[in-house]
Amino acid sequence: MRMYDLILKKRNGDELTKEEIDFIVNGYVRGEIPDYQVSAFLMAVYFKGMTKEEISNLTLSFVHSGDVADLSSIEGIKVDKHSTGGVGDKISLIIIPLVASLGIPVAKMSGRGLGHTGGTIDKLESIVGFRTELDSNEFIHNVNTYKMAIVGQTANLTPADKKIYALRDVTATVDSIPLIASSIMSKKIASGSDAIVLDVKVGSGAFMKNLEDAEELAKTMVDIGKSLNRKTIAVLTNMDQPLGHEVGNANEIKEVIDVLSNKGAEDETTIALTIASHMAVLGGAYDDFDSAFNALKAKIESGDAIDKFKEFIRIQGGNPEIVDHPELLPQAKNHIEIKAPSSGYITSIDAESIGISAMHLGAGRRTKEDQIDFAAGITLTKKIGDQVDAGDTICILHTNLEDIDEARHVAQSAFSISEEKPEPVKYIYKIIQ
After folding, report:
1. Is residue 177 predicted with pLDDT exceeding 70?
2. Mean pLDDT of the region 363-375
3. Is 73 within the bounds of a domain?
4. 187 a catalytic residue
5. Would you call 314 a catalytic residue per the annotation?
6. Which of 56, 432, 22 is nearest to 228 (CA)?
7. Which stretches make up the Pyrimidine nucleoside phosphorylase C-terminal domain (predicted)?
8. Whether residues 308 and 286 fall in one domain
9. Nearest 5°: CA angle at 72, between 71 and 75?
10. Domain's final residue, options 322, 347, 369
11. pLDDT tens across 12-34, in order?
């Protein structure tokens, strides 16, 4: 088998066999196939696409290139959730205690952030003492006992995907649906869950900017899950403005507390309850979505959800007192108000620009080596549809830095104001199952 022949085959639009895909992936991981040949293969995939079977085989090849979590000793149906990424996206932190409060095991592996703001692991580490490095025995014990646990992804989880993604990043082949879908699903399959709910973000702050592309990605990932015997549902959600009111790390933890205490913003509460309800149905707790939604809403209203979040913090070494005293979380020393330049209605908020501004404040990473400032971030005091007068505060920048001219400019330019009130924002676009 020669790599040249496989590049030619895919360039001509022909279907590769499982053995041929394994040859490419394994050969590249072992260093037997050079970057330039894999780059040519990726570009051929970009232009010619892949069949459903090819995408499933590529996903499995990524899975078997490294460690595969064995969660067989965890009782019940293990349900996981994945987001394609957005700005102010703290949904995972809401759904872990919420779903666990129904007795459904949530065994979650998450990553750190690179870009706008921190990932789920970074946000949790803004809680003093919170441990995201658990050995397998403690991880499994916590899920069996408390129905929830989270750890950072191991270095050897889908190493082929990591290596190929780094190459995609520098060869203009990142935005290929087969490659995106296999990359995401390989990590979920390797993490060992029985069922997966995918939060596919759509809009200015998402990887998929339009509904058509997002729907294609969602359908592709659901097909992969189905072909690999994983119950999979995709929820297409709005990311044309940041989710909720907080962007950052410690301040997103504060907003998680608000949602679980029945004081959260409507958009993130609705999305969190929707995703958690689908997880509850896949996990076997309820037969239908409406019953699950009502039960989870009741968990928030009764205080059970926030109590479960306190327990989640405690069992992983953090200080649960931050729930009642969020001032114990890291605090920035500088708070800069951004004012509305004119009167009218907020018609759009470019989510990506808000994310970039937050990164300039210290809330995210430009490179893997950058340190995150947990206290840095942005509070949105106005959202799309809100009426403002000239001089009203539209957002507040939180930072420990002194020179923030670029962050200030980017945040200011993210808001559009018009005399005409916009249509109400839709939070959920579609369910793919």
Report:
1. yes
2. 81
3. no
4. yes
5. no
6. 56
7. 345-418
8. yes
9. 95
10. 322
11. 999 999 999 999 999 999 999 99
